User: Fold these one by one.
Assistant:
Number 1:
Amino acid sequence: MLQQAARSTAFGLYEFYSAFTMWPKVVREDLRAGVKAKHQGNLNTSVRYLTRALETALALPLDELSPNPHAKLSGIAIVLGEVLELANKPAEAYDVYAAALLRLQNAMKKPTSVPISGPERVRAASLAFKLGEMAEMYSQPEEEEERWLTFAVEEMLRILRDTQSPEKSRDVTESGSTNSGKQSVDLDELELPAWVGRDDVVAPLEKLGAFYNRQGKQEWAVPLYLSALSVLLPANTSRDVPPETKCQGAHIMNSLAASLAAQESTSAAARISQSEKWAEKAIALVNSAKSSNLDAEVSSYCDAVLVAALFNMGSLKEMNGESFDAKQWYTSSHKLATSVGERGGIMEAEQALRRLNRPQRGKQDTQSGKL
């Protein structure tokens, strides 16, 4: 997803590309040299300088790194982790990110003379989200991926609860515990503070939902997808929704439709009906986005979402025994995928159409005596 790709390793690290003077001199030179080497592609040199900068900064009293010492310390670690990833050393990057998160968690649990700020707590949630992504990418134990993503979700909910008025805070407290994704989270009318982006909340909710969906725990995934949508596209709002946000919402609706279709706690007819409604909403929403003037990257993303939405409708029709309608949807998905060069969508649609055509050919061959 566009927004997730942008947020995975950036974390708003403005300080590294502007005022190095905000850093103590004992850290500043190594930090500047490390960032310069990174920009020049000298990754091993960059790792050496940034590692020394981090070690030096960790040895300093927090007061010497004020203001925002926790942001500074985690910031060096994140840039170091990013360089390690670029140098194809993901295991080392993973350890650096995990250590940075642990320091932030300790600062939250044991307040120091320099309390952790709201934005620094958001950074902790973002680091946990990053670790959850890496745990999936590099096939870490599922328990580890779940632990990171659950912390990211729950910490964002705690942040929102702590920044609301007493009435709204109570609403979050009553329904905001994910209990590892098992309960619904009502986020419809929450006000996000200026330093919390919608994607800071949406991304971990969606990712944890996808984790449970892969595990076949749709009853845990569905509430998380619904919560992500309530933050991304709140019902009671007059704000103008950007096209990329609409397509992101349609992507989540696709996931929700698939998750509902696989949920075994309701009858087949009921879950297919529910799923079709969400798939229809996804198609309408992405078509609304595509009616705007889109740049190439957003247009490509929206096209991919629409290809998937059309295919999902075909799958739902096929599950319901409506082969003719299923073929129509699969054909639409195939045509769009072909026109925009979406190779994965082309292959999936072709496989689905071959599968549906196979029984028909068999019937015709039997009637003509070929079998």
Number 2:
Amino acid sequence: MRLVQITDAHLYADINARSRAGVPWLHFQRVLAAAVAERPDIIVLTGDVSQDETAASYTLASDALASLPCPWFWLPGNHDQIDLMRAEHPLLEAVDMQQWRLLLLNTQVAGQPHGELGSERLKALSALLKEDDRPVLIAMHHPPVDVGASWMDAIGLQDREAFWQVLSAYPQVKIVLFGHAHQAYAQHIGLADGGRVDVYGCPAMSDQFMPGAETFTIDEASRPGYRVVDLNGEEWQTWVERVDV
């Protein structure tokens, strides 16, 4: 089973609109074409589909994604309008991936750049994990860890301790994928019971952020990209690919 993560497209209704370091629609098309060439079984877009929060920007994305030769799923980021997303394509909480399960978490706090699950979403996550003991991959927008850039760490998942407390009771959780940080990232989180969860960030489809920066800084030397995750039984391999634009 091959899953490809894409994230942070930041699209505009105007396909010629520019971001700080390029044209988001052009980047989106090229990253998506490269991702398709990986022959994925599933593609997951982990938030910030839109920059201008218009219905037209979501239509652009969903029309392109609808042509994929595999199922695709998305979840909201801090820039997204959930109702507009849902009007184009369902927002699911759980996906059956044969030997694995994919859980898609909504960490959005409306009108805020940071993320939070809150007590109700954490209860729902626990209920999903309690019902099935197959290996689990969690996808979310906001990082549940510090990525080492002060300004980004301040707008990550605010209730990360509560999130990790929930996961500590469910050793079937093996992988967490996040967006938002616009950079590649990897960390192994040890749990109190001796278990481990591997946590991975992904390059954005749009502009890249400078790793380790104290304040907001674009990494103009890095290219857009995506993450590949190969799931084999209860084992996995993952890597990042970059795309020329």
